[in-house]
């Protein structure tokens, strides 16, 4: 389990061999989240829409599946 500070504004979790899904315990204060070059295989969770300040999300070089929700359009 990842330990994240509730006041984090930027989190770089790239190249960390994170598998399966995007962590669900992300602080709502995040503005930048980098998860590229991991082993993410599930879809982008709807809960990511709760990160209202998020302006930069990097998910490249994973194996995500599913539909991109309207929150990203």
Automatic annotation (TrEMBL):
Species lineage: Eukaryota, Viridiplantae, Streptophyta, Embryophyta, Tracheophyta
Protein name as catalogued: PR-protein
Pfam families: LRR_1
InterPro entries in UniProt: Leu-rich_rpt, LRR_dom_sf
